[in-house]
Design brief:
With 424 residues, the chain is of the alpha+beta class. The protein has 14 helices and 23 strands. The strands form 6 sheets. Strands 21-22-1-23 form a 4-stranded mixed sheet, covered by helices on one side. A 4-stranded mixed sheet has the order 2-14-16-15. The chain is globular. It binds uridine-diphosphate-2(N-acetylglucosaminyl) butyric acid (EPU).
C-alpha cells in the first residue's frame, strides 16, 4: 500500500519580520504563457518561471500533447513545440487544474480543435466560463460540453468584435490566444487589464503576434500567419506575492524591502497601506514597507485591476483583524473567499462573515491555533496570522499554498519567521 505524506507548517509566532525578499515570476502569468507556447511552431525560452506545482502540472500536460520541455535551471525552461501531435488534453489532469482552460484557446489557435476537461467548481465558489465560450463561438468555433469535457472545433477562426459581459482575466486571455492566428482582426471590448493580461500579450508579440491595447479596456488582435518563436521571454514579477509580503510587514509591525517587483502594479495596495498608517517607500523595482504602530481600520472592496485585488483580500483581512476599530471588506469577485475568517477566529480574531461582506472588529492580539488553508491566498493569510500570533500554530492543507508560492517558508524564514515544514 502507498504511503501518503501530509505536510504541515509549524509556526512559532510573535515575530516582527525584517529584511529583504526577492519576488518570483507571476503564477497567473506563467500558467497562461506555458499553454500559449502551443501557438509557436518552434522553440522558445521562458525565464523567471516560478517553480510551483501549478507550473509543473502545466508543463506535464503540454508534454502529453507532444511538447519537449527542458528545465535549464530552477526558473528557466526551453519549450519545443515543433511536434504537437494531440489535441485531447489528459482529462484527469486538466479537470483538476483551473487554468487548463487556456489549453482551449491555444489548441484552437494551433490545431483548430481542443478537448479539455471541464474545470470544476472550486473552493472560491462557482467559476463559470461562459465568456470564454462566447468569445470562441464569436470567432467561429463549435463548442460542445458533455461528459465532463469541453470539445471545441473550428474550420477557420475569423476575427470579429467581442464584448465581454463582465471583466474576466481568463476570458480576455483565452480569446486573445484563440485570435492570434485567426484571419483578420479581433477586438475584445471590456477587456481585463491585469498585469498578467499585458504579460501574455507582450509574450505573444515577442514571438511574432500583433496585439495592441493590452492593459486598456479594448484589445485589438491582428491575426498573423505564424508565430516563429526563437526568442526568450521573462515572466513579469508576481504582484500578488509582492503584496503578500507588503501586508506581512504591516501585520507583524516589521520592516521588509521587497525586491524585483513592479511598484506601479501595487499602487492600489500602497495607497491602502498608507491609509492604515504604515510607511511605504518606492524605488525603481523595490518597495520598502514598515511600521511600529497599531494600524488604523479601513474599508476594502475587491475589484478588477487597477482596483483592490481579490487575491490580496485575505492577507489584508489579517491586518484588519488586529487594527484599531472596525473595518469592512466587501468581496465582489468570488462567492466563497471568506472561509479563512473562521480560521482567524480560532486564533482570537472577531470577524463576522456575512456572505459578500465581512466585518472585522479589531482585537489586541492573535493566539496560535491549529488551522487549515481552504485555498491558496487563505493559506498565505494564515501563515502571516501565525507569525503575528502569540504561541504556536500548525497549518495544514499546504497543497493549496504550494500551487502558487515558490519557497514560501524559506522566504519567511529569511525574514526572521520561526517556521518549519513537517511531513507526516
Ligand atoms: N466570470 C464569469 N464568466 C466567465 C468568466 C468569469 O461569470 O466566463 C466571473 C467569475 O465568476 C468572477 C469574475 O467573472 O466572478 C472574474 O473572474 P476571472 O475570469 O477574472 O477570474 P479567473 O480568470 O478565473 C484569475 C486568477 C484568479 C483571480 C481572478 C481575479 C488565474 C489562473 N486565476 O481567475 O487567481 O482571483 O483572476 O483576479 O489567473 C489566485 O491566484 O489565487 C486566483 C484565484
Amino acid at each position: 500500500m502507498g504511503v501518503i505524506f501530509l505536510d504541515k507548517l509549524v509556526i512559532k509566532g510573535n515575530t516582527k519580520l525584517k529584511g529583504e525578499v526577492h519576488i518570483s515570476g507571476a503564477k497567473n502569468a506563467a500558467v497562461a504563457l506555458i499553454p500559449a507556447t502551443l501557438l509557436i511552431e518552434g522553440v522558445c525560452t521562458i525565464t523567471n518561471v516560478p517553480n510551483i506545482s501549478d507550473v509543473k502540472i502545466s508543463c506535464e500536460i503540454l508534454e502529453q500533447l507532444g511538447s519537449k520541455i527542458t528545465w535549464i535551471s530552477n526558473n528557466e525552461i526551453i519549450i519545443d513545440n515543433t511536434d504537437i501531435n494531440c489535441t485531447d488534453a489528459p482529462l484527469d489532469m486538466t479537470s483538476k487544474f483551473r487554468a487548463s482552460y487556456y489549453l482551449i484557446g491555444s489548441l484552437l489557435g494551433r490545431c483548430g480543435r481542443a478537448v479539455v476537461g471541464l474545470p470544476g467548481g472550486c473552493n472560491l465558489g462557482a467559476r463559470p466560463i461562459d465568456q470564454h465560450i462566447k468569445g470562441f463561438e464569436a470567432l467561429g468555433t463549435k463548442v460542445e460540453i458533455a461528459q465532463g469535457k469541453i470539445s471545441a472545433s473550428a474550420k477557420n477562426l475569423i476575427g470579429t468584435s467581442i464584448y465581454m459581459d463582465m471583466v474576466s482575466v481568463g476570458a480576455t486571455i483565452n480569446v486573445m490566444l484563440a485570435s492570434v492566428l485567426a484571419k483578420g482582426t479581433t477586438i475584445i471590448e471590456n477587456a481585463a487589464k491585469e498585469p498578467h493580461v499585458v504579460d501574455v500579450a507582450n509574450f505573444l508579440n515577442t514571438m511574432g503576434a500583433d496585439i495592441r491595447g493590452a492593459g486598456t479596456d479594448v484589445i485589438k488582435v491582428n491575426g498573423v500567419q505564424k508565430l516563429q518563436g526563437n526568442a526568450s521571454y521573462s515572466v513579469v514579477p508576481d504582484q500578488i506575492e509582492a503584496g503578500t509580503f507588503m501586508l506581512s510587514a504591516v501585520a507583524t509591525k516589521g520592516d521588509i524591502t521587497i525586491r524585483n517587483c513592479i511598484p506601479e502594479h501595487l499602487d492600489c495596495l500602497t495607497a491602502k497601506i498608507i491609509e492604515l498608517g504604515a510607511n511605504v517607500e518606492v524605488d525603481n523595482d523595490s518597495i520598502r514597507v514598515w511600521t511600529n504602530k497599531k494600524i488604523n481600520s479601513t474599508n476594502i472592496k475587491t475589484q478588477p485591476y487597477p482596483g483592490f485585488p481579490t487575491d490580496l483580500q485575505p492577507q489584508m483581512g489579517v491586518c484588519l483583524a488586529i487594527a484599531n476599530g472596525t473595518s469592512i471588506i466587501r468581496e465582489d469577485i468570488w462567492d466563497s473567499r471568506f472561509q479563512y475568517t473562521a480560521e482567524l477566529n480560532k486564533m482570537g480574531a472577531q470577524i463576522t462573515d456575512q456572505g459578500k461582506s465581512a466585518i472585522f472588529q479589531g482585537v489586541k492580539e492573535l493566539y496560535g491555533a491549529p488551522v487549515s488553508a481552504s485555498d491558496l491566498r487563505a493559506g498565505a493569510a494564515l501563515i502571516i496570522a501565525a507569525i503575528v500570533a502569540k504561541g504556536e500554530s500548525t497549518l495544514t492543507n499546504l497543497s493549496h499554498i504550494d500551487r502558487g508560492y515558490e519557497n514560501i517558508e524559506e522566504k519567511f524564514r529569511n525574514l526572521g519567521a520561526n517556521i518549519q515544514r513537517i511531513s507526516e
